[in-house]
Amino acid sequence: MKKILFTLLTLIVLFSCGENKELEQDYTSFSIMQNEIEEQPNTVVGYYNNGLCLKIAELGDLKKGVYSDEVIVNNDTLTHIYVFSDYIYPSFKMDTVLILKKNRKSTFQLQRHTKGIEVDQNDPCQYPH
User: CA dist 46 to 16, 50, 98, 127, Å?
Assistant: First the structure.
């Protein structure tokens, strides 16, 4: 009986470790989807560094229920990203911080309760440039 239990536990550990290896990749990337409106216009993703908001990618218009193209992140130290759009105000930043998983493809679904904070597109401290 002990031998069977040991074998089962070993198999569980092996399969769970193997599963994680399959998710790993040589780069960090992400994809974003929204399910609330038919189209979220001019969606941009950025991050903050030394007081400036820097652009990672322009996702264009996010269609309802469709993930954006995969975006590869070239900065290995980057963990927190922000989503900007022209949906509510001339431009707004979503109040949710998205956290990347290193060497994985992070997939994010923007939630209904996400609020927007108005930003000035011309200010490099507020909007990605």
Answer: 34, 13, 10, 8
Q: What is the average per-residue pLDDT within 50-73? A: 97
Query: What pLDDT is attached to residue 27?
Result: 96
Neighbour tally for 51: CB within 10 Å = 7
Any domain includes 107: yes
Report whether 30 contacts 107 (CB < 8 A): yes
φ, ψ dihedrals at 8, nearest 5°: -60, -45
**Statement: the pTM of the whole predicted model exceeds 0.70:** yes
- Using CA of residue 108, residue 114, residue 116, residue 117, what is the dihedral sign? negative
**CB-based contacts of 126, cutoff 8 Å, min separation 6:** 53, 93, 119, 120
79 Cβ partners below 8 Å, 6+ apart?
A: 99, 100, 102
Question: How many helices, marked H, and strands, marked E, lie in the chain?
Answer: 1, 9
Domain assignment present for 70: yes
**Count of domains observed in the chain:** 1
